[in-house]
Amino acid sequence: LLVFGTIEASGLIFLKQALNVAAYEGVRESIRVGSSNEDGAEVAMAILSSRKIKDVQIRFPNGEAYQANRGDEIVMEVSACKNSNSKLLGHLGTNQLLTTRVVMLKE
C-alpha cells in the first residue's frame, strides 16, 4: 500500500508540475506583441500533449490577450482531472480538478 501511495503521489506531483510549466509557457507566448490567446493555448497544449496529460481545460479569464494594452494583466488557467491522469488508482476516490493560474503583464 505504501508503494502504491508513493507512486500515485509522484504522479500527482508530475501532473501539477506539467500544468505549471504549460501555463507559464502559454501565457509567456500570449503576452508577446501580436500574439493571441490561441497562440498561448497552442504552446500549452503542445507541452501537455508531449507529457500525455488528458482532459485539459485552458481558460483566459481576462479576455483576449491580443486586444490588451501594454502593461495589462494576462491570466491563463490550465486545469486537468486527477483521475483521468492517474497512473494507478484510476477512478478510485474523488475526482479533483487540478488548476494552475499564471499572471503576466502584456509586453
Explain what the structure shows.
The structure is a single chain. By secondary structure, the chain is of the alpha+beta class. Helices cover 40% and strands 21% of the residues. It contains two helices and three strands; from the N terminus they run ααβββ. Helix 1 (2-30) runs antiparallel to helix 2 (37-50).
SSE map:
Blueprint lengths: L1 H29 L6 H14 L5 E4 L13 E9 L15 E9 L2
Antiparallel strand pairs: 1-2, 2-3
Helix pairs in contact: 1-2
The helix content is: 40-55%
What is the string of SSEs from the N terminus onward? HHEEE
Structural class: alpha+beta
Quick one: how many beta strands? 3
Briefly, what is this?
With 107 residues, the protein is α+β, with helices and mostly antiparallel strands.
